[in-house]
What does this fold into?
Amino acid sequence: MGPEAIARRFRGRESRERTGNEGAKKCPYCGPGRSLDERLTLTPRYKCGRCKNEFDVPLTDNIDVTVYRTHHGEAWIDLAGELTAEQLRSVCKSPKSQLSIRELDWSAFTASLSTDLSHRGLTLMNSVSVQLSGGFTDRITRVRSGQPAFRAQLMQKYASNCAFSGAMPHEVLEAAHLYSYAQVGEHHDEGGLLLRRDLHRLFDFGKISVRNDATIAVHKSLEPFELYGQLHGRSLTIEPTQRQRQWFAAHRTMWRVDAA
It folds into this structure.
């Protein structure tokens, strides 16, 4: 699977929360109301669902919006194809909600899944957290197969060198995949770098990316933080391979980063 295909499979896994404004379209005859019917092959392009007037150019209002995307980290399991869109909507607590992210009715969801997920290497289970002494909780978690060996391989290749910030204590360096391991489940050759823990997280969230010329691009939201702002425009501390450049390009495409 190439970088572009894996980048497409990133979507829906990472988390992001942002605020801003969005243009809300409305009918120039009767104002806001029912949704406008946008017709891609007919003219005029729009038809109002309330007054039935047709027109090519709707009025727009800027409204404040908050956009969310879920993040599951290593807990992410791809169940694509197990349920149809209609089946998945039916097991939501609010099936008719227009929100993209909806709360599941867990009992209905698990009942709708196949009882045998062994073809995906999975076993369905319910786990209840148990409170332990000292403020700890015992939970079931998933650990990436081969991750220690993958990190050891990168440490041997790059020593204690963060690709973004240079020499670092090995304790703060993590093996960062340049693609979604949760989707692919394999450690690809040339598909990883060592990154300082905080930079690894910011890279995963699309706040830091790498341009075609192997220089670092830092999202404007990090500009107030000198620690990260000073990385903007700096060259990587390693020389990326051609395939790694492809992974970086796929990462920018996934996060819609405009970086030359």
